[in-house]
Amino acid sequence: MHGMCTYNLNSLRSILQKQRKLPLNYGRYRVRFYNATIDNIRETASASDLPQAMSDVAKREVQHHSNLADEWWNVNGPLQALHSLNSIRVPFIRDGLVARGSIDAKAVSTTHVLENQQILEVGCGGGILTEHLARLDAKVTGIDLSDALINVAREHLKKQANARLLENITYKIEPIEIHVKDKCNFYDAVVISEVLEHIDDKVAFLTACVHSVKPGGSVFITTLNQTIPMWLGGVLVGEYVINAAPKGTHRWEQLISPLNVQRILDTMGCQTILVNGSIYEFWRNSWRWINSTSEIQTLFCI
């Protein structure tokens, strides 16, 4: 069934209902997913399953992030941790694509390493990650539901006065469920960074994302883990004490564990290649991978 862009969302949603009964994972603060080898799409459905309007949760999330538009590119402002995150997430995506074997060996050590790679960033916001991937010569399409943030992204791009970036980046105000209708099996990779924890219907969202990727392509996800330590340290302390993120950015019920993400992806025939943990050291505005076998796991799932 590979190549079809239809799916049964009700069947997939039942996965999450079962997963909510799973015990909490106390070990990992944050997670990184490198998902590749999209071999088979097992579920089918009609286009009528796609959302026709934003839910109240989506509207709330869009408005919350739109309110930060003026500060989006302030590297010392409320989103400084997001800017700093590029130091590990850009190499993570780059190295994952290199490992896939589709990158010309001559380009690996150059600034053009991602040349000819079509990448979709879902929930791109004001373009913090988008621009960095495009600087490696990837052709990046950034989509977001916030017109305010897409406008910020476009204006910042213009100010760079960089013809190469202008050619490499396309921004659209569009949900993934609509975008995939014209871009089914199109992208070499889809990036979902710091977005999944703001999505209410994760099954529908991830399904649409997977369908936008070519056979053998990659999906990269960064998100907060649903653990007690993450909630206490990463959210309550992070947002209300040290201001590592704007207050009210995250909600417990919208967080998800890596195991549950993996299970959703399993139903779509995706093979999870790597799951990594990372932590934010706020005192020096720096991210690092967690160097512990109990904190970093490598998963191979068929």
UniProtKB/TrEMBL annotation:
Pathway: Cofactor biosynthesis; ubiquinone biosynthesis. CDD domains: AdoMet_MTases (cd02440). One of its GO terms (biological process) is methylation. It is a peripheral membrane protein. It comes from the Eukaryota. It catalyses: a 3-demethylubiquinone + S-adenosyl-L-methionine = a ubiquinone + S-adenosyl-L-homocysteine; a 3-demethylubiquinol + S-adenosyl-L-methionine = a ubiquinol + S-adenosyl-L-homocysteine + H(+); a 3,4-dihydroxy-5-(all-trans-polyprenyl)benzoate + S-adenosyl-L-methionine = a 4-hydroxy-3-methoxy-5-(all-trans-polyprenyl)benzoate + S-adenosyl-L-homocysteine + H(+). Its EC number is 2.1.1.64, 2.1.1.-, 2.1.1.114. It holds the Pfam family Methyltransf_11. The keyword Nucleotidyltransferase does not apply. Residues 120-221 form the Methyltransferase type domain. Keywords: Magnesium, Membrane, Metal-binding, Methyltransferase, Mitochondrion, Mitochondrion inner membrane, S-adenosyl-L-methionine, Transferase, Ubiquinone, Ubiquinone biosynthesis. It is an enzyme of class 2 (transferase). It is found in: Mitochondrion inner membrane. Its main location: mitochondrion. PANTHER family: METHYLTRANSFERASE, UBIQUINONE BIOSYNTHESIS O-METHYLTRANSFERASE, MITOCHONDRIAL. Belongs to the class I-like SAM-binding methyltransferase superfamily. UbiG/COQ3 family. Component of a multi-subunit COQ enzyme complex. O-methyltransferase required for two non-consecutive steps during ubiquinone biosynthesis. Catalyzes the 2 O-methylation of 3,4-dihydroxy-5-(all-trans-polyprenyl)benzoic acid into 4-hydroxy-3-methoxy-5-(all-trans-polyprenyl)benzoic acid. Also catalyzes the last step of ubiquinone biosynthesis by mediating methylation of 3-demethylubiquinone into ubiquinone. Also able to mediate the methylation of 3-demethylubiquinol into ubiquinol. HAMAP family: UbiG. This is Ubiquinone biosynthesis O-methyltransferase, mitochondrial. It comes from Glossina fuscipes. The lineage of its organism: Eukaryota, Metazoa, Ecdysozoa, Arthropoda, Hexapoda.
